[in-house]
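[job 4471] stage=fold_predict status=RUNNING
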Amino acid sequence: MSKRPTPRGENLRRALAQEAARIMAEHGIRDFLVAKRKAAERFGVHEGAVLPKNTEIEEALVAYQRLFGGTVHRESLQALRHAALAAMRRLPEFEPRLVGSVLSGTATEHSPVQLHLFADCAESVVLRLLDLGVEHEVTEKRVRMSMERVLACPGLRFEIEDQPIEATVFPPDGIRQAPVSPVDGRPMRRASAIEVEALLDRCEPAEDITAGTCP
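[job 4471] inference complete, writing C-alpha cells
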C-alpha cells in the first residue's frame, strides 16, 4: 500500500511546482521535465516521488502569470494569438490548427506560436510560403502519438507579425488523431481559425486571459 503524502511532502511538492513554473515563465524553458529538475536542484531535492506532475506545474504557471504577468502577459498572449490567426488565414489550404501554450493561455514572452498543418508533403507548404514571400527554415519535429509511438514530422519555422511560428506538417489524415499533450498525456487540444477568432473576440480588450472564461 502506498503511503499518503505528508503535509511536509505536499508543501514541498507545491513549492517545486511553483518554482518550476517561475523558471518556465522567466527563462523561456518549454520542457516540463527540465523545469522540474532545475527546481529540484535549487531545493536540493533528490527524491523523484516528490516531484510535481506536469499538470501541477501548468496550474502553478497560470497562477504565476495571473499574479505577476498582468497587462504585459495579456497583451503578449493576444499578440501571439493575432499572429497565429494571421498565419492560419494565409495557409487555409492546409487546415491549420493552433495548439500548445498560445491556445491554452500559458504562453510566456519566449513562447512561439505552434501550428499543426496537414498536407500530402511538406514541400507544398514550403512553396506556399515562398509565394507569400515569407522567409522560413525547414526543421523536423518528433511528436508523440501514444505512449508507444513517436512520429518524426517535417516542420517549418517562420515569423508572422514579428512573432515566431513553429509549424508541424502532418499527413492529411493526421487531422483525425492529435498527438498526446506533454501536460496530461491526453490528445492535444487543437483550434481552427474560426475558434481562434472567437477566442480573440472573447478575450479583448481587457479580460483576464488566464481566467476560466478566457483561457
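[job 4471] summary: Helices lie at 7-27, 32-43, 54-90, 101-104, 122-132, 193-203.
[job 4471] exit 0
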